Give the backbone structure.
Amino acid sequence: MNRSRSSWDKKTSQASVTRITRSSQARHTNHIEPPDSGPSLYGKQRRKQTDSALAQNLSQMSVSGQDALFTGKGKVPKASSDSVPAPRSDQAAPSSPAVKSSSRGGLASVARLVKLGRCKNVVVVAGAGISTASGIPDFRTPGTGLYANLEKYNIPYPEAIFNIDYFSNDPQPFFSLAKALYPGSHRPNYIHYFIRMLHHKGLLLRLYTQNIDGLEKLCGIPDEKLVEAHGSFATASCHLCYTPYPAEEAKRAIMNDNVPICTFCAATVKPDVVFFGEDLPQKYFLHTKDFPKADLLIIMGTSLQIEPFASLVNTVRSTVPRLLLNRHAVGPFEKVPLRRGDHMELGNLEDTVRRFAEMLCWNNEIEELMRNQETLTIPPLVSSPPSQTCPIRATAEPQGRTETSRSIPGAQRAAGSGGEETDSETDSKSSASSTLSN
Ligand code: CNA
């Protein structure tokens, strides 16, 4: 993984930085704090709305689910402060009436914009919530989230498991979790394919994901359209000197309860998943070009608790519509009134995305794309110009597996790789042998 090394002051503008480390806003606690939605990079650029059709569409904005939350017709009760928090991810139950959507909700408004051809540079910001439908628990959903099930790792606070200093002292808690998280036994779901369809239609500027499960690649979203902001299991390196280490060997060691050791400095090797306190991959900095260019931002399945990623959503132009698809209001969507052009559709993400696809008349194409892709052994990584009617069917050459002869002290023979997944699907990611124990 490329890492830039120059120093970084967290208070400085993101545009001027070359090194950014991952941090959690809810440090050492499960409590979810509202993210900083103060002036952003572009916060002061209040541009006049010049496109009257767009303005008209935006004026029809409403927030699905909020009708049920706030009793006044379109009015929101004022709290003592100037903002009223919408239900947060640690509060409302999934069965809350807020999950009901209206046919004229934010989803319909945004679908109308897309159909009108007004959204040609869509940026998607995604989190663990897009993969729960694939059977991978997220972090913070009460009860099912990984943070609610960490007792067995014997760590002082949930985030410790992704803390690089903690790892340096004791890698075992992370390695135990990694055994459950290693990609291999999960398949992309409808939500992933919806994002791929955005690409297929030529509308996806970039997908910024916090996920480390590799399902975006597996569903065929091409590398150049994807920023895995928190890294992935596809590569591994020394956590101290960053010397690369064969990902397959690292996986073998971890799956066999051994510790992969750097051949250069003898420190512990870990998959290139970005920990709190570690630099984000260089590719993350594409955001400085992408977000100003975006004409629609879709935020899906994230609590927006991890910085600097969470603040990205504040860096689109102030006139750009932002659509939150999540079970709960998060980030800037926790405050009312919402920013003009902000929409949210609360509820089960897969259901919401299916409805969105139906509004766009994409459902059949997505289903077909899923069928085709899931029957292919090697999904295509397609970057060809999109077509309105034809699902992408290109095939990709399998890349050679990353086999090395280097042995890891104490490592036993790997468990059988066994899965249908191939390296070309996942950028040399390890083969399928893991199971998700949670
Ligand atoms: P998070 O903090 O757990 O938030 C997930 C959000 O998605 C929450 O707001 C949930 O309410 C929402 N959500 C979950 N399931 C659904 C659903 N079915 N329908 C609607 N909404 C849903 O996770 P974030 O992604 O915000 O946090 C970033 C962390 C999580 C990243 O650093 C990842 O590495 C890490 N993570 C990734 C994975 C993965 O790769 N699949 C799994 C678990 C954690």
Remarks:
- Residues 326 and 349 are 6 Å apart (CA to CA).
- The radius of gyration is 21 Å.
